[in-house]
Amino acid sequence: MEIIEKVNGSINSFVWGIFGLVLLIGTGILMTCLTKCFQVSHIGHWWKNTIGSLFKKNVIGHRKEKGTISPFQALCTALAATVGTGNIAGVAAALCVGGAGAVFWMWIAAFFGMMTNYSENVLGIFFRRRNKDGEWSGGAMYYLSDGLGTKKGMKIPAKILAVLFCCFTVLAAFGIGSMGQVNKIVANVAAAFDISALSSVTVLGGISLYNVILGAVIMALTAMITLGGLKRIANVAEKIVPFMVVLFIVGSLVIIGVHYDAIIPAFRAIFVNAFSPEGFVREVGGGVLGGVIIAMTNGFKRGVFSNEAGLGSSVMVHSNSSVREPVKQGMWGIFEVFADTMVVCTMTALVVLTSGGLNGGVFNAQTGEVAAGYTDATLVGGAFNQVFSWGNIGGKFVAIAMFLFAFTTVLGWSHYGSKAWEYLFGSKSVPVFKIIHICTIMFGAVMTSSLAWDISDTFNGLMMFPNLIAVIALSPLVMKITKNYVARKIKNKKVDPILSYDAAIQAEMEEGLETEA
């Protein structure tokens, strides 16, 4: 176990170290430049075609076709997988290590991550195809094999990268997509809603009976939903995700509103400490520069870990959307990152920063000092208890939010893992993956070691290397598809659409566009 821990630690520090983060942010910068800063230059257009189109039937209406879901369902399922423990515990960890300035760098990572996610989804729709069951299948493995693989001398390397991506995805689905999330659910629920008659009883060599029961309940709920296929997952996601995001935002706004006098100091601390982290100068040998690097690294890491832009994960559900235009689903990818990081993560950060202000509380926004008795795991709950202190209501609210966030992450990753499994072993064997995925939930409920979480974190990060290689190599294609869309839809030019790599699918999509018109 010690050897495994050391090897994983070395790989993890490389994957989520400077090299990995530069590759992630660099890809976002590249795609932002190639698309002429699409997330800003066409902000009105993508906003209108995402959140501004929620009352249109073709966006929210359910689809009869097998394995096809609406653009809104695709967004909710993707958000179900991305809006998880990273939005609460992850943000708190970034603040504890990198100070208030980490939030600024989290925003920067999200800004460029919008275009990375956009590019992934454009490629996902362009290279998707139907499997033997007539369902759409798309993802990094397909634009690796059919996109990068068409370039001279890249057929075999692209195929290897596609297989590696799928292997990493399956393992990450078992880890971060199951055991890690369930472990956080059980820990938070058991602490906030303790039932001593159950928690005091131990089984199987010291495991709490309460944890076992909670694990069994989560297993049953997951089985009922995931074994019903993507449509059932999407139906649940479109109901839970908007509710949980709005619930958390409203709760956060109450906390922030009560501490309204600390809002301006909190924002000041975010911007000032991003470049001059006062609280960390005394702790790092590099002085101010060392503090900036700590804030920057943790902000980038937690931002990417939260919204998953660049990992190639959410492409696998976005590719099941009923849209015909690759760019349209790409715009939903922009909104996904915006909602995850710019909204939910920012709310979490402001809850912690305003509850402390500059005079203590659970966290001192200026110096980055955490109050005695708090850790990154309890920081957000403590901030909520500053206002809702009676009966630990604040802690219970955060526990409920964590349950909803983490449980829907399990559902979303079930689909990601099943698509990767399908690529490796065929669509008929997918039920085998789903059963294994459900069984791993119990391991997450009873495990005490953080090693399983650390290993799955590594596999999660390893997904980005084959994915980003493909995105960078195919960046001219993304630029070409984007220019084509802008010319047709924004500048109203008569240009033939670019919709698919496959001539038959291209013709089908063109016919659909004519019918819509």
Condensed summary:
The chain is about 70% helix and about 0% strand.
Describe the protein in words:
The protein is an all-alpha fold. The protein has helices at residues 2-15, 18-34, 38-41, 43-48, 57-60, 71-82, 89-98, 101-126, 140-145, 155-192, 196-199, 209-226, 230-258, 263-275, 278-281, 287-307, 315-318, 326-356, 379-385, 393-425, 430-446, 451-462, 464-473, 475-490, 503-516, and strands spanning 129-130, 136-137, 202-203, 207-208. The protein has one domain (2-516): Amino acid/polyamine transporter I. 72% of the residues lie in helices and 2% in strands. The strands form 2 sheets. The chain has a two-stranded antiparallel sheet. Strands 3-4 form a two-stranded antiparallel ribbon. A hairpin with a 3-residue loop joins strand 3 (202-203) and strand 4 (207-208). Helix 7 runs antiparallel to helix 16 (287-307), helix 12 (209-226) crosses helix 20 and helix 13 (230-258) runs parallel beside helix 18. Residues 279-288 have low confidence and may be disordered.
